[in-house]
Amino acid sequence: MDYEVKDWETNPHLYLQDSEGNFVLKKDGTPRKKGGRPTNDAEAVARRTITRKQKNIQKLEQKLSNAKTSFKKQKTTLEKLDNTKQGIVTDDDLDKLPKAVQEHLDNHHIFFHANEGPQTDFLAAGEKDVLYGGAAGGGKSYAMIVDPLRYAHKKDHRALILRRSMPELREMIDKSRELYPQAFPGAKFREVEKLWNFPSGAKVEFGFLERDADVYRYQGQAYSWIGFDEITHLPTEFSWNYLASRLRTTDPDIKTYLRCTANPGGVGSQWVKRRYIEPHNYNETFMGKDGLTRKFIPAKLADNPYLSEDGVYEQMLKSLPPIQRRQLLEGNWDVAEGAAFVEFSPEHHIITPFELPIHWERLKGIDYGYASESCCLWGILDINDGTLIIYRELYRKGLTGEELGSIITNMEIEDPFSVNGVLDTAAWAKTGTTGPTVGESLVRAGHKLRKADKNRIQGKIQIHEYLKVRENGRPKLQVFNTCPNLIRELQSIPLSKTNPEDVDTHASDHAYDALRYMIMSRPRMESPLERIRGLKREMYRPVDSTFGY
Predict the structure, then answer these.
(1) Which of 80, 337, 376, 533 is deepest in the core (most CB within 10 A)?
(2) Rounded distance between C-alpha atoms, residue 264 and residue 378, angstroms
(3) CB hemisphere CA count around 160 (13 angstroms)
(4) Residue 190: what pLDDT?
């Protein structure tokens, strides 16, 4: 008897089994699921519910985390406003506060609103020594008044704000009268001592430095903050360095700071520039030779909306003479008041070093000094257009003739040929000694030198000619940026007060003199072939003891 094959045996995917084991044909004909449970199973429903609630919990946890972060930021801002923490409140900080809190602060707590940009950067700076300077009207004086308040809630905090003279100091005191009582109700000003006493016990003192000797009035004092408004009014850095030694505090929670503001120009412009501006890029922290962290924050008129909006102050600055206009309107530190060479421009005259062709003619100019600096400049003539390029400098005091000759020899190791040069005539003069002169010592060291043409008036005129920008867009004189002393002197050396056709001989002029000697030697270009021929002739040419060759 044949076995009858049932349809559910051949097509099991078309059937389901009921609770009694009978095969029931699927209505839709889809295959039976291999595993799992029906979708209406209670456990599956519970599992989906749990998953949904876990997702909701994660969302709530994220909202809670965001709320905690926002609360922390608001708390930090309020603590800054209440002077319980060091710092400055910016517009971004205030925007994080609830609207009701912002409105309350606008009416009751905000006594000084820092301009976004350099003013805010200055007040928030953590470096030990900071200069905030540049164009006039950038909000520097108000920043100087506000900055010492960073520790006004600390009883051991003592600050010193300085100007050059008493009338200038009066202006600073008047500004402090506007701000300090609002910031710290109960703060009292003692007129005789020029001293603010704050409720915490902190003190802010006002003083002046008209002469270097005035620093000794602060001898034996200790300050946690010292600031000088318009520091370029100090002729030398002696006073500032001395005051830096007064920085100290017994409170480990108080950091000590030096702060100063300045416009370009003034008697101390060059030492300020060397200390803060030349060593590093703007707005970047660097380490000074004295081990202090330092920063220069440039200021522009546009940074102060209270003065720049109507344009009146800007028009007044535009009406100033060219040098003052570049200093006070543009914040340009590369021009000096009364400078002899106003045409000197970093854009045209300072270049990046490059590999010098071996066949270009090289020469050097030397100005000698022992108590003052000796300077040796090395130049090369661009054979294409005759441009004189100063590519190396030596600038050092306290050198004998033999020492100078040895150093020059070592520095010329990389030069392909011996470099002809000119030397200050004073270095050839006999001064009662029986020994060799400086010039003779240099010649004995193997250097080919002749006496310089020291015509001061013609030398200055020639430098003016070399600084002119020619039709090809290039001046006849360019300087590698690795020659900072020559660049500094060309930018800053002043005219003589008694002879406007000459420079001030009392100023730092050693690199200037070396350049003048070199240019007055009337350097000429030689072809490579003539240079080689000259080398052959030198083998048989006797040395001239006076001129070196």
Answers:
(1) 376
(2) 31
(3) 22
(4) 94
Pick the last residue of a domain from 296, 328, 360: 328
Checking 522-526 for CB contacts under 8 A at 24+ apart, the result is 523/361, 523/363, 523/379, 523/381, 523/388, 524/361, 524/381, 525/361, 525/381, 525/383, 525/386, 526/361
Which of residues 272, 294, 328 is at a domain's end? Answer: 328
CATH assignment of the domain containing 423: 3.30.420.280
Q: Distance between CA 161 and CA 165 in Å, rounded?
A: 12
Q: Please report the sign of the dihedral spanned by the C-alpha atoms of residue 93, residue 99, residue 101, residue 105.
A: positive
Secondary structure (3-state) at 392: strand
Are 210 and 290 in the same domain?
Answer: yes
CA dihedral 267, 268, 273, 276 (to 10 degrees): -160
Q: Which contiguous run of DSSP H or E holds residue 200?
A: none
> What totals of helices (H) and strands (E) does the chain contain, helices first?
19, 18
Closest CA to 257 of 248, 266, 267, 265: 248
Residue 162's beta-bridge partner residues? 207, 228
Length of the chain: 549
The dihedral region occupied by 21, where left means phi > 0, alpha psi between -120 and 50, and beta the remainder, is left
Closest Cα partner for 483 from 336, 375, 407?
Answer: 375
Return the structure tokens found at 350.
């300072």
Is the distance from CB of 77 to CB of 89 less than 8 angstroms? Answer: yes
Q: What is the pLDDT of residue 92?
A: 55
On whether both 260 and 307 belong to a single domain, the answer is yes
Of the candidates 291, 290, 225, 287, the one whose C-alpha atom is nearest the C-alpha of residue 259 is 225
Asked if residue 266 and residue 156 are part of one domain, the reply reads: yes
pLDDT at 504: 82
Q: For the chain, how far is it from start to end, CA to CA, in angstroms?
A: 137
From the CA atom positions of the chain, what is the Rg in Å?
38
**Model pLDDT, residue 199:** 92
> What ranges make up the beta strands (E) of 138-279?
158-163, 188-190, 195-197, 203-208, 225-229, 257-262
Residue range of the domain that includes 515: 346-538
Q: Can you read off the two tokens belonging to residue 363? A: 């020469």
Instruction: Give 529: exposed, middle or buried? Use CB within 10 Å, 0-12, 13-18, 19+.
Output: exposed
SS3 assignment for 44-102: HHHHHHHHHHHHHHHHHHHHHHHHHHHHHHHHHHHHHHCCCCCCCCCHHHHHCCCHHHH
Structure confidence at residue 301 (pLDDT): 61
Averaged pLDDT, groups of 10, the chain, 549 residues long: 66 74 66 48 76 84 77 63 49 56 51 71 90 72 88 92 88 89 89 93 92 85 93 84 90 93 78 86 88 87 54 57 57 65 87 92 92 92 93 94 93 88 88 76 90 92 94 94 91 81 84 94 67 54 45
